[in-house]
DNA sequence: TTAAAGCTATTCATATCTGCATGGACTGGA
DNA sequence: TCCAGTCCATGCAGATATGAATAGCTTTAA
């Protein structure tokens, strides 16, 4: 077989891929943990190697040429294959030592996981943990994390998911705030109250009203996408927020705003990539998380 | 986006791919134009990087581990994508300078192409030519050549093919040999003659007999897969062979064995990869070949 | 049994690549 | 207009990878 067609420097192709997707050499360098001059030289070298102009240097900005766009498609295919290489490699690795990356929503990462991770560290000191607190669903398919703690079932078939349990969440506010609005006894008493909203507030309104409340967007004067900021706003008396029951009840600053109201139930799903479950390390952490969370 | 999954060294993946396919580090090194120590170190480094044992070192030989086999599939996918990158890159390159690789059967490479290549070199001194004389159909899809001169129409849809002309081929032998078998006048007179065979002699027998001869495998005591050796055997009087008309008639050492017999007609197809036809250089050479051959 | 050919692993000098520091250029906002 | 932020290009020192040479091993053939 003649290998002429793959003799070009594959790392340069990778440099081109990340540069094109990130939009700049600097961003690509940050993403790859390299420096911008290195990336720049690699891309230039690829252009010379393939004898194709990939980027148009318009002042500071790089713009893909039509040729570059054409090539990008195929380099993306290389990238996807590379992702599979990386994934199955991690899956094949039976080494218990190494690092593992867990992603969870802020509230879980801050209150639910720390004791579990502590236990894990004691049991397996060889495993390093990276914890990504993010409310946007990380893409496990692209290996942004190894294991995800989510409140919904993933749809991608390449992921395996396990429903751990259902967590009841309730409305909380400071005693001071509840006093200010007259210690509500019924759902109607909350019609004029201030609630802390998330970024997808309309979904939240719908959920609340299905439980018997009667709220509109006017009840959400403050919004934040951060669960932790949400919780802080509640604890500092700016309004009513929704928090998992065990976290809320453990906080002396607040109390349930309407204990008679049925809780909103959030499931907790543990998710990992199918390929990764063949890794001893991932399986160990996955099983321990499943154990401890339930 | 997090690029952790493609951060590993892609050149090492390439080293692994070629090593696995070629079967040894040394062979892979030859194929890639590198040295064996380099390939060996790259493969070892990949094993450490991915924390997977790819090869089992059994004495001198490398044997893929199950994990390595698993990974190989995905690395092969990278390789295919890389081939596409290389192909479209060459297609995008509008630079007329550069090298081009033409494959043809030995007989064409030796007698048909030299004057045309000479003309091409004069017209475009910037284009370097690599001429691969091979009777096994080179795989244009894998980019073993840029342009192929073939005697059959390629089936792959990603190739474009142009039928240049039909070349009549006739039976030739030395006068001395023809005298020895009594200057045959009819097809029957050849029933006991010696013919030079190719490796696929049964196909050849079928073709001859369709023209009115009545041969069996016993008529082919000598076989060679090489067209040039075939032609030399004929010129040195060892038997009757089949050669394109213009080549045979131009050779004073031989004459047609049975001029009344209808010629076997071989088409000449010019073939190139679809992607490559967008390259100025390839198109130029392709068109010149088409012109000159017809 | 021996010789030859093939393979991999190691050593060391060299060539290449990388990162750091810096300069110059462009953009957006005050 | 100026300034801060962001970007790409370049020079240079140090880190890294590469190739040539060699040694040691295994297989094959005589």
Judging by the overall fold, what is the CATH architecture of the largest domain in chain A?
3-Layer(aba) Sandwich
Mean pLDDT of chain A: 88
Q: Would you state the CATH class of the largest domain in chain A?
A: Alpha Beta
- Helix/strand class of chain A: alpha/beta
Q: Predict the CATH topology of the largest domain in chain A.
A: D-Maltodextrin-Binding Protein, domain 2
| Percentage of residues in helical conformation of chain A | 40-55%
- Number of E-state strands of chain A: 11
Tell me the count of domains of chain A: 3
Radius of gyration of chain A: 25 Å
- Pattern of helices and strands of chain A: HHHEEHEHEEEHEHEHEHEEH
Which oligomeric state applies? Answer: homodimer
């Amino acid at each position: 077989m003649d290998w002429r067609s793959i003799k070009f420097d594959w790392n340069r192709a990778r440099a081109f891929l990340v540069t094109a997707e990130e939009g700049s050499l600097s961003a690509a360098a940050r993403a790859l943990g390299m420096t911008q001059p290195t990336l720049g030289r690699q891309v230039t070298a690829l252009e010379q190697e393939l004898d194709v102009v990939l980027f148009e240097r318009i002042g500071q900005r790089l713009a893909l040429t039509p040729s570059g766009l054409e090539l990008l498609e195929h380099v993306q295919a290389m990238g996807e294959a590379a992702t599979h290489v990386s994934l199955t490699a991690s899956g094949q690795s039976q080494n218990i030592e190494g690092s593992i990356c867990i992603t969870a929503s802020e509230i879980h990462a801050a209150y639910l996981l720390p004791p579990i991770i502590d236990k894990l560290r004691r049991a397996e000191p060889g495993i390093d943990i990276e914890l990504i607190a993010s409310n946007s669903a990380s893409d496990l398919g692209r290996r942004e994390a190894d294991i995800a703690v989510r409140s919904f079932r993933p749809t991608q078939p390449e992921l395996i998911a396990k429903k751990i349990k259902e967590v009841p969440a309730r409305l909380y506010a400071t005693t001071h705030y509840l006093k200010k609005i007259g210690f509500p006894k019924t759902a109607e008493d909350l019609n004029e109250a201030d609630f802390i909203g998330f970024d997808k507030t309309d979904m939240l309104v719908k959920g609340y009203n299905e439980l018997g409340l009667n709220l509109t967007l006017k009840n959400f004067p403050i919004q934040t996408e951060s669960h932790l900021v949400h919780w802080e706003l509640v604890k500092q008396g700016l309004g009513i927020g929704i928090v998992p029951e065990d976290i809320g009840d453990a906080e002396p600053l607040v109390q349930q705003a309407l204990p008679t109201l049925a809780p909103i139930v959030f499931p907790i799903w543990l998710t990992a990539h199918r390929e990764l479950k063949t890794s001893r390390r991932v399986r160990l952490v996955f099983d321990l998380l499943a154990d401890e969370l339930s």
